[in-house]
Amino acid sequence: MSESSAEIGAAAGDLGPKGREDGRYCWVCFATDDDDALALWVQPCKCKGTTKWVHQVCLQRWVDEKQKGNSLKCVVCPQCQTEYIIVFPNMGPMVNFLEIIDTLIKRLSPFLAAGVVVGSLYWTAVTYGAITILQVVGHKEGLSVMENSDPLVLLIGLPAIPVGLVLGKMIRWEDAILRFLQNRRTVARKFPLLNLVLPISESEENETSESSLTTPILSDPVSATRILCGAILLPTVSSIVGRIFFESIQNNLHRTIIGGLAFITVKGALKIYHKQQQFIRKKQRKILDYNEENVTAYVSKNPRSSRSNQAQQP
């Protein structure tokens, strides 16, 4: 049952024949005394007329629908907004005790679940921080550092390692360089001394001025999974790069740091080159006329070329 059915029942009771107004009329199932003489009736609210009566069973079903499993939830009349007086029989102290326990469990379960999740994440971060120290500093040196450190420092410092890696990964320094390369003309106006280092030719300046209003700056959207995976794998990759290319450095920490810096630099340079080439390709993109020559040259050879940016003019 719903409130719409209650409104329909109320309207039907108000518009019904005069003979029906003298009897009882259920606004839930639309039945009268003549339809079911043995049914129990109740007048649960301040409504008057035929809509003040309702079958006990029908009202129980309607209340169950409104409470949605919460038997302690208050229910009001859909017409006069009077709160129903719902009374439960006394089932004894044992049942009341179990009701209290069940209610407490329902209320505390979300907080307990959140605590378990937060605790699991915390100890996972502690374990990852310890493994990272052993990997970066070295097994023996790492064990010695953690054994000689204060436990409170370890409980705070170890989980801070993955957090710091994630925050560091969110620094998108490549995008800053890309914006500089793609807006050199605008930056050169603000800082004229840059023309001495990176001069801009007239053809490039004209091309930049024509396309700056139509070509957006290419930038990757922030991906949480990519940032997380990159941050977690960075110590391992730094250690591998350091062992391969900087084997002459004896200190494990120094070798890993230099390997990480080299990896970040090379990876950033490749990303900048890739994005800059994509930017140049997008600036030089053109949409051709849909004529027989272009259809034969591009669409007929490769049906997907009309939906991609790979087509180049002959």
Could you explain how this protein is built, in words?
The structure is a single chain. The chain has 314 residues and is mainly α. The protein has helices at residues 3-15, 18-21, 56-67, 93-137, 139-148, 151-169, 173-182, 184-190, 194-197, 202-211, 224-245, 252-283, 292-299; strands spanning 41-42, 54-55. Strands 1-2 form a two-stranded antiparallel sheet. The longest helix is centred in the middle third of the chain and has 45 residues, at 93-137. It is flat and about 100 Å long.
Count of alpha and pi helical runs? 13
| Fraction in beta strands | under 5%
Form type: flat
Which residue ranges are poorly predicted, with pLDDT under 50 across at least 5 consecutive positions?
1-21, 208-218, 305-314
Structural class: mainly alpha
- Describe the biggest sheet? 2 strands, antiparallel
Instruction: Give the distance, in angstroms, between the N- and C-terminal Cα atoms.
Output: 71 Å
| CA gyration radius, whole angstroms | 37 Å
What is the number of beta strands? 2
Specify the helix fraction band. Answer: 55-70%
- N-to-C series of helices and strands: HHEEHHHHHHHHHHH
**Order of strands, widest sheet:** 1-2
Q: Taking all residues together, what is the mean pLDDT? A: 79
For this entry, give a set of tags.
mainly alpha; 314 residues; flat; 13 helices; two-stranded antiparallel ribbon; disordered C terminus
Question: What secondary-structure arrangement, pairings included, does this model have?
Answer:
Elements: H1 3-15, H2 18-21, E1 41-42, E2 54-55, H3 56-67, H4 93-137, H5 139-148, H6 151-169, H7 173-182, H8 184-190, H9 194-197, H10 202-211, H11 224-245, H12 252-283, H13 292-299
